Amino acid sequence: MLCPEATVIKGNAGVYSEESRLVTDILRERVPVLEKASVDEFYVDLTGMDKHFGCYKFASELRQKVIKESGLPISFGLSINKTVSKVATGEAKPNNQIKIDFGTEKPFLAPLSIMKIPSVGEKMFQTLCNLGIKKVHTVQQMPMEMMERVLGKNGLTIWEKSNGIDDSPVVEFHERKSISNERTFGRDTTDIAKLRTLVTAMAEQLTYQLRQGGKIASCIGVKIRYSDFQTYSKQARIPYSSADHIMIPKVMELFESLYNRRMLVRLVGVKFSDITYGSYQMSLFEDTRKTANLYESMDKIRNRFGSRSVMRASTFGASNIGGMGNPFSGEPPMVLAHRTM
């Protein structure tokens, strides 16, 4: 073991999601427009509030409100747009706040590492370093056309953000609570193999949708409607997840316990609910890196060639499982980037 003295603490996606929901509720009750960018990152449009209350004063009091009610450390950056606010929030951490006055965006960004600019990851950072670009001020001094010519659209985006230019709006947050899929048969069936194949395929497709939306779910439901139109459903709680090897067996367990009338079946359906932002936390003792890599590879193929381009052998033949689309898909504004730590 490389680090025998290490203390390993298992992540708990359920706890993270509950805390995220608490902060979301506090913010949603008090701000005009809220965008939830991730489980711990929010944008708030405070346009016009400076005429009545003062944006910075309002944001400061809101931060204290979140800290008091949630017990979490909170950082925020206040500026004219989302890019500068996000960078300012990073500079305010841990547990602090920064206001970037209008007109001072470029001087604020100039001395920072170019890696502080959103959309500049490790690979792009290495590319920029090879071009002699390590600080934001270097990009600010370069012609926009040169950045675009060398790096294409990415170069133009980096140049604009480095110069504090970002007109993307704050998109109002509406959290989707559930996703589902169901199939009504053209001819009622008692083909149990067909039913199992279809239910498995539905669960597989919905789990993929969760991962694509950066979501996790903690409630699974299965529905069956018989030829006499009697409808039955069951649901079960699980730890928050978006992993096939957790979701699919639970779906099948519910289906097997529900399908007991041995009558012609008219409809079957699968539903995931109590959805929130997050990603599945691998267990150090139950899962392997190989499992995570498998999901990632499968999802890349699906993203490129379609959600049924790669599937389990047990779902082969389920050609029609319902809708396949991903459901999660003037005066300059004052934008607050607000992040829990």
From TrEMBL:
Originating species: Lacihabitans soyangensis
Protein name, as recorded: DNA-directed DNA polymerase
InterPro entries recorded: DNA/RNA_pol_sf, DNA_pol_Y-fam_lit_finger_sf, DNA_pol_Y-fam_little_finger, DNA_polymerase-Y, DNApol_IV, IMS_HHH_1, Rev_trsase/Diguanyl_cyclase, UmuC
UniProt keyword annotations, A-Z: Cytoplasm, DNA damage, DNA repair, DNA replication, DNA-binding, DNA-directed DNA polymerase, Magnesium, Metal-binding, Mutator protein, Nucleotidyltransferase, Transferase
Subcellular location, principal: cytoplasm
Pfam families linked to this entry: IMS, IMS_C, IMS_HHH_1
Subcellular location: Cytoplasm
GO biological process: DNA repair; DNA replication; error-prone translesion synthesis; SOS response
